[in-house]
Design goal:
By secondary structure, the protein is mainly alpha-helical. It has one helix spanning 45-98; strands at residues 26-29, 35-38.
Length: 106
């Protein structure tokens, strides 16, 4: 028997304190301008399940797409960065050969 089935409430709750019960209703205005409360379907039905599955699938697809884009960008930019670093290192070494260490202006 779970604590939800227990009429005294969950463990640790005082017995003189009433249990809180929350109900959610949809409110709509009828043709005469009166508010009507309607209980929503218990599970939401097949349409809600399909909608939820599509939203989860779209979220996962977007996350995977962003990861693939980041990986592809890394694959393209990493060789360019390495090539640029190699070229700058080569230019620095050539500059040092052109001017020996004592020839630098102080």
């Amino acid at each position: 028997m779970s604590s939800d089935d227990d009429p005294t409430g969950p463990a640790g709750a005082s017995p003189d304190r009433p249990r809180l019960r929350v109900q959610v209703f949809d409110a709509r205005v009828d043709g005469g301008g009166e508010w009507r409360l309607e209980e929503p379907p218990a599970g939401g039905g097949l349409g809600a399940a399909i909608k939820k599955a599509l939203l989860v699938g779209l979220s996962v697809a977007l996350a995977v797409g962003l990861w693939l884009f980041a990986f592809a960008l890394m694959v393209v930019l990493l060789p360019l960065a390495l090539l640029g670093g190699w070229w700058m290192w080569r230019r620095l070494k050539a500059l040092q050969r052109a001017r020996p260490p004592g020839a630098w202006p102080s």
